[in-house]
Amino acid sequence: MVVERIKNYVETQKKDIIDDCIEIINIPSISHDYGEVKKALHLIIDKAKSMGFDAYCTENDSIGIVEFGHGEETIGVLVHIDVVPAGDENDWDNPPFSSVYKDGYIWGRGSVDDKGPAIASLYALKTLKELGFTPSKKIRMIIGTQEEVDWKDIKTYKEHNELPDYGFTPDGEFPIINAEKGFAQVNVNFRRNNCTGDFDVISFDGGISDNVIPPKANIIIKGDKQLLNEKVNSFVLSRPEYADKIIIEEQGENINIKTVGKAAHSSVPELGINAIYILVELLSTLELKDEGMRQLIDFSMKEIINNKNKNPLNLDKTDDETRTSIAATLARCTSDEYTIAFNLRMALKTFGSDVEKCFSIAADKYKFDFNMDNFCMEPISVNKDTPFLRQMAKAYEELSGLKAEFITSGGTSYAKAMPNTVSFGPIFPGEIDLCHQNNERISLDNLVKCINMYAYLLYLTAVEK
């Protein structure tokens, strides 16, 4: 009976759901663009106020709060409205910040991660409110603005506010992610140092964000153009799958080598094609006039690229059922050094201290220095037998007709920031996850299922006696 009432009400809200998603997606709230991020935050807070909720911004406009109900316990619903860069907009079928509803999908950057789910969470609260349900616990929706970068928003919030007793974030996938791998960002620096060879290195660049598999990379070099063409042709013969992913452009005396990959979330590197790796593999066949670049290539090839399906850098313990993933996401250079940034998702028994130790060993061998960007988060796991997760499993099974399995994810969500918090949706089993990719979009049918699911879960947890 309750489920049918929820479904029937949400069905009447579809047009508003679409319109609200499009409106917030159209704000290009890339994490470092604080003006646009603030605009998106104020928009969702204003929408919550118009629905009759107690809603406000706090922590210098870095966090939004929407509250519903009263009680001794607090249920957290954690979302974020900042997004990763869209990359080259020409690679999108529809502009990433000009959202449309087309072919049953809401398109645009943030539709999946995490603006669409944020709107879904808000409509779940609205559904309970409009159906006349009064929660006997406080439901607090916490809206972040720096989830895709350094988490300063949520760190500041935790310093000044009481934390929820338990909760969920719609920033993963179904059924229930009750364990998340760790997270580390490691910047590896190689000093530029001239040596003998065939090609001078002018510049080196790749990637768009710390947590996106790089769709593009390039290096500008100077040297014998005929020799380079011979080397490239030989490389392509040995790696024919890269034939359409390498572009050579002459720029006066210089040669610009571009590589093209495919963006994906760095927690699932196997879903993308790493343009930096393609470039490094090609460069490994050249004699470059820089010892630092040679060391970068040597390290990347031996320890990462040729070892990515095994145990790179010997990070993982032999008794761990999960495995650490490591992906180069950014490449840069200055007049003094080359930097390549690696995004790691650590196995459940691999910790920040293990990462530091393994990189220290490699640093001695390959002559580099590194830093962990002061941003390392350990793996988490929440007991699946807690009452809240049992209710979550019940809601999922009743509304999806599928078994509520508990899974481990390589993703890093705000679940790491709060006690007893897990990821719950929005991606359903078998659905293509376009998070951080070109043509990001979310099915309206699935977004409606999410709203129904979240509303019913909050009913079971905070309303039902």
UniProtKB/TrEMBL annotation:
Coiled coil: none annotated. GO terms for molecular function: acetylornithine deacetylase activity; dipeptidase activity; metallopeptidase activity; zinc ion binding. Its EC number is 3.4.13.-. Residues 256-292 form the Peptidase M20 dimerisation domain. Keywords: Dipeptidase, Hydrolase, Metal-binding, Metalloprotease, Protease, Zinc. SUPFAM superfamilies: Bacterial exopeptidase dimerisation domain (SSF55031), Zn-dependent exopeptidases (SSF53187). The keyword Hydrolase applies. The keyword Protease applies. InterPro entries: Bact_exopeptidase_dim_dom, M20A_pepV-rel, Peptidase_M20, Peptidase_M20_dimer, Peptidase_M20A. It is an enzyme of class 3 (hydrolase). It comes from the Bacteria. Its cofactor is Zn(2+). Gene3D superfamilies: 3.30.70.360, Zn peptidases (3.40.630.10). GO terms for biological process: L-arginine biosynthetic process; proteolysis. Belongs to the peptidase M20A family. PANTHER family: ACETYLORNITHINE DEACETYLASE, N-ACETYL-L-CITRULLINE DEACETYLASE. This is Putative dipeptidase.
